Amino acid sequence: MEALSLSVVLVFLSLVITVFAFRRRSHSDVKLPPGSFGWPIMGETMEFLFGKPENFVGDRMKKYSHEIFKTNILGEKTAVICGPTGNKFLFSNEQKLFTVFRPHPMQKLFRSYKTNAPAPPVQASPTDEVKSIRTPGFFKPEALMRYLAKMDSITQQQLDVHWEGLSEVKVFPLSKTVTLTLACRFFLGIDNPERIARLVGHFDDITLGMHSIILNVPGTIFYRANKAAAAIRKELVNVIKEKKAAMASGAPMQDILSHMIVAADPNGNFMPEAEIADKMMGLIVAGYSTVSTTITFFMKYVGENPDVYNRVLSEQLEISKGKKAGELLDWEDLSKMKYSWNVMCEVMRLVPPLQGTFREALCDFTYAGYTIPKGWKVYWTVSSTNKNPMYFKDPEKFNPSRYEDEEAPPPYTYVPFGGGPRLCPGKEYARLAVLTFIHNVVKRYKWEVLFPDEKIMGDMMPTPEKGLPIRLTRC
């Protein structure tokens, strides 16, 4: 019996050694990108999450390669492809060489409806929320055009409620309330201030938890995010039930939630309420955090640059001259906000609302002379170009004029919304939201930033430590 047991152990060890040797040989047959996988298990996740993104990327570009380097973040072997050439390569090969990948914290937070099902594939399914909204064209200009007046009206109401009559306010809380109100109205078709106010803190926690270490114990970022997701999911299921009842009574279908409720797969099956809730939660997070961050830092940089404020104000007053009293914005007005949009572009360059996204290699492929194996993750990031003096003169300077025709940045150096087939579907929605806010805020107020050196907390969701207090002067 002992001899048999020993034989089994020896056979097992031989198999392990053979597999290990095969893997080593297979890796030695390809030229992997330079770089380091960091510590066992954790890799370089801590540096990625808690170091400044431009430093994490920039330091490794200098040390290893300006084109590509390898790392291990959030439990995945990852190739970071850098620079405008890398951006072009990534955007041109979507669904050919790689597909979208959601980090494991995001899968846990937004895939609760698959808890009792087999483990989901690492790539997004064909019925993910992005596909759900692309098909009916909710984000196409002709659809958004119908929503613009409502967006203008909501923004005015929020300024009336939260800022009117006050001399000192905090920007960040209002920016979150405004953008969450807009997102809930557009995505869910609800317009209930009290209901929305209850959700603001929950969405903040989820945004932070999307890029965090999956440690579901009290006190951790992921624990708070998981609790917040459960609270929002419960509220959304209630909204879905109300929406179904309203639709059964003949209410119009003018929002994304209504479409998801009636959408069926090829077999005629409708989405379960839990799945709809998770998909809607993901959409609202995307439409909330990025827009509120951009609005907040618009107020900071424009408040610190009076010459920029004066040019924005002049442009917006010129638009108002051609409108009757009380008339809301229309699509033609947006085309006249060229300088205002340049200001927003410069804000997004200095404080990116989105640092980057992940892809998964569908097959082995070669880039810059290195092989990225199938199954590896590929990280696209704005940090390799946004503040690079090769592409932006005086990169730390706030200069909206750099986007004018004669100074436009080179192709693929400024890509805050990604590019190619995976270009952010909400780009046009975000443009409308921020330009509508600009139009209303500059016509009402001049402002002074009270703490120009206020500390900015976090990188995945940049947050002014004090909420960006400003002093308002009514125009």
Cα-based radius of gyration, to the nearest Å: 24 Å
Number of domains: 1
Total strands: the figure is 12
| Number of distinct helices | 17
Structural class: alpha+beta
Note down, in words, how this protein is organized.
The chain has 475 residues and is of the alpha+beta class. It has one domain: Cytochrome p450 (Orthogonal Bundle). Helix content is 50%, strand content 11%. It has 17 helices and 12 strands. It has helices spanning 2-28, 45-50, 53-63, 83-92, 104-110, 129-134, 141-162, 171-188, 193-197, 200-209, 221-248, 256-262, 273-303, 306-321, 331-334, 338-350, 427-444; strands at residues 68-73, 76-81, 98-101, 168-170, 356-361, 365-367, 370-372, 377-381, 445-449, 456-457, 463-464, 469-474. The strands form 4 sheets. The chain has a 5-stranded mixed sheet. Strand 1 and strand 2 form a beta hairpin. The longest helix has 31 residues, at 273-303. It is globular and about 70 Å long. 37% of the residues are buried. The model is unreliable at 1-26 and 116-127 (pLDDT under 50). It is a single-pass membrane protein. Keywords: Heme, Iron, Membrane, Metal-binding, Monooxygenase, Oxidoreductase, Signal, Transmembrane, Transmembrane helix. One of its GO terms (molecular function) is oxidoreductase activity, acting on paired donors, with incorporation or reduction of molecular oxygen.
What secondary-structure arrangement, pairings included, does this model have?
Blueprint: H1 2-28, H2 45-50, H3 53-63, E1 68-73, E2 76-81, H4 83-92, E3 98-101, H5 104-110, H6 129-134, H7 141-162, E4 168-170, H8 171-188, H9 193-197, H10 200-209, H11 221-248, H12 256-262, H13 273-303, H14 306-321, H15 331-334, H16 338-350, E5 356-361, E6 365-367, E7 370-372, E8 377-381, H17 427-444, E9 445-449, E10 456-457, E11 463-464, E12 469-474
Parallel strand pairs: 2-8
Antiparallel strand pairs: 1-2, 3-5, 4-12, 5-8, 6-7, 9-12, 10-11
Helix pairs in contact: 5-11, 7-8, 7-17, 8-13, 10-11, 11-13, 13-16, 13-17, 14-16, 14-17
